[in-house]
Amino acid sequence: MTKQSMHGAPVSRRGFLKRAGAVAAGAVAFPYIIPSSALGADGAVAPSNRIVMGAIGVGGQGTGNMRQFLNSPGVQMVAACDVDKSRVEAAKKIVDEKYGSQGCKAYGDFRELLARTDIDAVCIGTPDFWHGLITIAAAKSGKDIYCEKPLVNTVAEGTAVRDAILRYGRVLQTGSHERSRDNARYACELVRNGRIGKLHTIHINLPWDARDLSTLPVPMPVPEGLDYDMWLGPCPWETYTEKRCHFWFRYILEYSGGEVTDRGAHVIDIGQLGNGTDDTGPIEITGQGKFLTKGLYDCAVDYHFEFTYANGVRMLCTTNEPRGVKFEGTDGWVFEHIHGGNLEASKPSLLKERIGPNEIHLGRSPGHHADFLNAVRTRGLPMAPVEVGVRSATMCHLGNIAMLTGRKIQWDPVKEIITNDAEAQKMCKRPMRAPWTLT
């Protein structure tokens, strides 16, 4: 597929935000329908319009994303990459079985995959601390990007990723797939169009899934086929132990942010959409949390942190159940269950409301992965573009920072800095182990 920036030239941040705002407000800024001229006579996508893809990080979610694209019309999956040889070989087998050939190339280093000029786009499903670095490298290599949430592992990574996407004119979809659910978008339309009166409070429920996190970092030999040094990448060197890697990394703050950045990136993201603040953030954050202090893991397992916006809306994030987002206004409330997707409201009639033609429409998605592919073809904005991914991830990190410091944080959402606490501001960035840098 021909590589080009949006409308053939890099987009400024201001222009990007205008487009993002138009999409969020329901304006049809770009077509989401593939023209018939791009299709072959039998309805299959013509080779000239086929999107050639590679998958980087093919663990559980990474393989799930790869399968979604592998089974999408007009996509040719040609490469898979993972530092775990057993995982990348399993991914290659899935692709080869799909095509009935041995055409999928397996890599252990993402840079080799990105060096291929025949690949148009990549899906990234690595641990969180690799998201920003690989996204920036992919943008520099001219690839469009579907990257799992949270899009970045620090606040500083967010600005660097945004700059790269805008500079190189790439399409990026953050893997916050809840944003593509019809019910989530309808709930936010109800809020944005005043059906619950004036919005004043957003409740973010992030119940902690009880797990045994008492594991001690007992040294173990590195398994054959795992490039452990590459797995650690920009993070400090640590002796290998089984439950440091793969699924378990998310409970170690150096690598991720616990539930706050895991499913928090989903739920806070919907709160942002309903509040109409996709291109900004809060101005004040407070929080208290109980952090694990023994063993290998150190994330928060009990938390209450609050965001206050310039418009006066408060977002309260707690371990309350059930998992989801509740919008409260002067005239009622609406609650969306995350993962289930069903809606509840203060009165049943609220969920039968019709959004009029002159009101705010947030559009509907053909599916989060299909939406990304449409944006790649049209050079438009997907449902969760880079600005959305950066802002939602930033809020997750600010919540953790507020709880770790125990102090009130004043945040400038324009400059994207903490203005009242030098120590807290330093926590917005982490040093990286050589040779890895954000530049």
Q: Specify the CATH homologous superfamily of the largest domain.
A: Dihydrodipicolinate Reductase, domain 2
CATH topology of the largest domain, by name, is Dihydrodipicolinate Reductase, domain 2
| Domain module tally | 2
| Percent helix range | 25-40%
Biggest beta sheet attributes: 9 strands, mixed
Range of strand content: 15-25%
Biggest β-sheet: strands ordered side by side in the sheet: 13-12-11-7-10-9-8-14-15
Spatial shape: globular
Backbone structural class:
alpha/beta
Task: Give the CATH class of the largest domain.
Answer: Alpha Beta
Q: Report the count of strand segments.
A: 15
| Overall pLDDT confidence | 91
In whole angstroms, how far apart are the ends?
A: 28 Å
CATH architecture of the largest domain: 2-Layer Sandwich
Order of helices and strands: HEHEHEHEHEHEHEHHEEEEEEHHEEH
Residue stretches low in confidence (pLDDT < 50, at least 5 long) are 2-12, 18-43
Structure, described:
This protein has 439 residues and is of the alpha/beta class. The chain has two domains: 6-179, 3-Layer(aba) Sandwich (Rossmann fold); 181-357 and 386-426, Dihydrodipicolinate Reductase, domain 2. 31% of the residues lie in helices and 18% in strands. It has twelve helices and 15 strands. α2 (60-70) packs parallel to α3 (85-99). The two termini are 28 Å apart. The model is unreliable at 2-12 and 18-43 (pLDDT under 50).
